[in-house]
Specification:
single chain, 383 residues, alpha/beta, 3 domains, 4-stranded mixed sheet, 12 strands, elongated
Length: 383
């Protein structure tokens, strides 16, 4: 098992194709007709797994990637300079830049998240009897009841936060009992589905692969898929009029949030609604249609296909291939196997050559360094 330039590149290619395909099929409701929203979220989680493990396995079959991969290798494998006897290549610069930016973004995010969790953890549970009674009605299992409701002016829209110390945050303003019921039910469903943990994984992987534009498509659609699943869970047993009241509460909070100069959301939180009108329209449409999970076959078929594609993505890796020029070596495309016993290097008039049974072949400095690493010595003064 190893990580190479080509294994990282293949991860980028596979995940980009998979993300775009899932995004298009979900937007066109093709995936929703085949599977549940949970199945769609599982598909995206497989993308995250593939992103997190960009390795080349022992059983991976190497296939020539053609001229494109030769071109990529020439770019990333180009030597820039030599420092203290160590060659510095383009891919070294890329890896360092990747790591530095990732470290800065990850540190900033973790600090923000720690501050938010610490800030709301210090707040006492609300003494509002009505809010606690509503939560008791929704969560009848006392063993699962490790959730506190906090009413605060620090948030603009209702949201939930916390993986271990779970909080439902309610803005400090007036709500009817029906509005509070739908708000708390929505946020409790997020916590019960472990959506906060999923969101944290998405945020961290997006930071790790900050240079990949397709991870931001995955992040946005993953958020939307989680919200749609939450809406479906909440409205599954509601009547048509009750679904309308539920959507009215979401619309009211959306209008209140867009009236603010800037939509602010605590780091790592799941708000009742985002400031994207197109996302809200899609949620409303699916709730109004009452579309839920499809057939059992579809719910099984989609994860099976996802696993098959994941395995396939590790089965083949495309790499560059170097063809021996016939005009230079005269070997007519045949491979040349050399070792320290049947070949050696020598220098003549400032040029380097490889001597073996087939003849003498000119080699460049990059090949010389490669052979030196494999314990090939250079004979001075010619053969």
């Amino acid at each position: 098992m190893q990580i190479t330039i080509f294994s990282v590149w293949m991860t980028f290619v596979w995940c980009s194709i998979f993300i775009v395909l899932c995004y298009i099929l979900r937007k066109r409701s093709v995936l929703l007709n085949l599977s549940s929203m949970t199945g769609i979220i599982i598909l995206y989680l497989f993308c995250l797994i593939r992103l997190a493990v960009p390795v080349e396995l022992p059983w991976t079959k190497v296939v020539s990637g053609g001229s494109l991969y030769n071109f990529l290798y020439q770019i990333f494998g180009c030597e820039i300079t030599c420092v203290a006897g160590h060659e510095i290549y383009v891919y070294h610069i890329f890896v360092v830049a990747w790591g530095v930016v990732m470290a800065v973004l990850l540190t900033r995010y973790l600090i923000q998240y720690h501050r938010v969790v610490s800030y709301f953890s210090e707040m006492e549970k609300t003494e509002d009897t009505e809010l606690n009674n509503i939560l008791d009605e929704i969560c009848t299992d006392k063993e699962k009841r490790n959730i506190k409701i906090v009413q605060t002016a620090a948030v603009e829209v209702p949201c939930c936060i916390g993986i271990f110390e779970k909080r439902i945050l309610i803005p400090d303003k007036k709500y009817s009992r029906e509005e509070l019921h739908y708000i708390i039910l929505h946020e409790y469903t997020h916590l019960d589905n472990k959506d906060i943990l999923t969101i944290q994984l998405i945020n961290i992987l997006c930071i790790v692969f900050w240079w990949n534009p397709f991870v931001y498509i995955l992040k946005g659609d993953m958020y939307q898929s989680i919200e749609i699943r939450c809406d479906q869970t909440v409205t599954k047993k509601l009547k048509s009029a009750e679904r309308g009241n539920y959507l009215t509460v979401i619309l009211k909070e959306y209008k209140a949030s867009v009236q603010e100069k800037e939509f602010r959301k605590p780091a790592g939180a799941m708000p009742l609604c985002e400031d994207h009108s197109d996302h809200l329209i899609e949620r409303f449409r699916l709730v109004a249609e009452g579309k839920q999970s499809s057939s059992r076959i579809g719910r099984i078929f989609v994860p099976v296909i996802a696993v098959a594609l994941l395995v396939l993505s590790y089965s083949i890796i495309l790499q560059s291939r170097y063809e021996v020029p016939e005009s230079t070596y005269g070997l007519k495309g045949d491979s040349l196997e050399i070792n320290q016993k049947n070949a050696y290097m020598y220098e003549k008039n400032g040029e380097y050559y490889l001597h073996c049974e087939e003849g003498n072949f000119p080699i460049d400095k990059k090949t010389v360094k490669l052979l030196e690493k494999n314990e090939f010595n250079i004979r001075k003064g010619g053969r």
